[in-house]
Specification:
It comes from Parvularcula mediterranea. InterPro entries: ATPase_NBD, Carb_Metab_Reg_Kinase/Isom, ROK. Keywords: Magnesium, Metal-binding, Zinc. It catalyses: D-fructose + ATP = D-fructose 6-phosphate + ADP + H(+). By secondary structure, the protein is an alpha/beta fold. It folds into two domains: about 5-115, Nucleotidyltransferase, domain 5, CATH 3.30.420.40; about 115-275, ATPase, nucleotide binding domain (Nucleotidyltransferase, domain 5, 2-Layer Sandwich), CATH 3.30.420. The chain has eight helices and ten strands. It has a five-stranded mixed sheet with strand order 3-2-1-4-5. It has a five-stranded mixed sheet with strand order 8-7-6-9-10, with helices on both faces. A hairpin with a 2-residue loop joins strand 7 (about 140-145) and strand 8 (about 150). Helix 3 (about 115-125) crosses helix 8 and helix 6 (about 205-225) crosses helix 7.
Length: about 290
């Protein structure tokens, strides 16, 4: 008897992380394809998911997608699941949900990568007011308060806020094609790499981490001041650097300067699910599709 399979895609700007799970949500197998053109990436993802399901002796019954943004996340919209005006070259206007759902002939649900990761992290911790920040090719934020995801029927775009410059960094123009030196333009992986080279080669004490902490700490204080959060979780590829989250927490506490009593370094945590947060969130979306 063919067993039912849930499929999930953590659709990032660098790669699409793919996974399949049984009805209980536990990941059975996974794969990854590089993010190139929309057509090539979608074709490779569909082929990889079909192969994973076949090897597991199952049939894909539903798909969940945790996507980079901006993306239309309103199920009532005619363009639900379509990538909007994105810095990712060639992807603006891509009907991601429709193309993947039709190719696999299954129902599908989509949300932002950060919202999906936040949902997965909350399932582990049971908090009611929390935010998730992803730091990778871009910077994104998902936030939930009073049981509701922020920004509905759209989603926050806090990666593009303006921030005060780190001392000595005033002349860097930034890498965001829309805003230049917004937060994403200053502290995303491409922005850090442009200044400091490959991040995996930087030692923990390198100034790059203090600079990134300065910028992301400002974002964290804005979030904490807005919704008086119980937790701010940081994930994404750059968060795998051991120095990043401690530097963000240090800057956050220093910037708060004792004003909000709960806004201490302990409020900032690295994603408990690590790089699986987006994929596990996508699989939770599949279960609801």
């Amino acid at each position: 008897m063919t067993k039912p399979i849930l499929a999930g895609i953590d659709a990032g700007g660098t790669s699409f992380k793919l996974g399949i799970a049984g009805p209980d949500g536990s990941i059975l197998d996974r794969a990854r394809v590089p993010t190139t053109t929309p057509a090539a990436t979608i074709e490779a993802s569909v082929a990889a998911l079909r192969k994973l399901a076949e090897e597991a002796g199952g049939k894909i019954e539903a798909l969940g997608i945790a996507s980079f943004g901006p993306v239309d996340v309103d199920p009532a919209s005619q363009s639900y699941g379509t990538i909007l005006a994105t810095p990712k070259e060639g992807w603006s206007g891509t009907p991601l949900l429709t193309q993947l759902s039709q190719a696999l002939s299954v129902p599908a649900a989509l949300d932002t990568d950060v919202n999906a990761a936040l949902i997965a992290e909350l399932a582990e911790e049971g908090l009611s007011r929390a935010a998730y920040i992803t730091v990778g090719t871009g910077i994104g934020v998902g936030m939930i308060a009073a049981g509701q995801l922020a920004g509905r029927p759209s989603h926050p775009e806090l990666g593009h806020v303006r921030v005060a410059r780190f001392p000595g960094d005033e002349t860097f123009e930034g890498v965001c094609p829309f805003h230049g030196d917004c937060l994403e333009g200053l502290a995303s992986a491409p922005a850090l790499i442009k200044r400091f080279g490959p991040l995996e080669k930087l030692p923990q004490h390198h100034q790059a981490w203090r600079l990134a902490g300065h910028y992301l700490g400002q974002l964290c204080l804005t979030l904490a001041s807005t919704a008086r959060l119980q937790r701010i979780t940081i994930g994404g590829g750059v968060s795998e650097a051991p120095a990043l989250v401690p530097e963000v927490a240090r800057a956050f506490e220093a910037l708060n300067n004792g004003y909000l009593p709960e806004a201490t370094a302990n409020l900032i945590k690295k994603a408990a699910l690590g790089e699986d947060a987006g994929l596990k969130g996508a699989l939770l979306l599949a279960a609801r599709a």
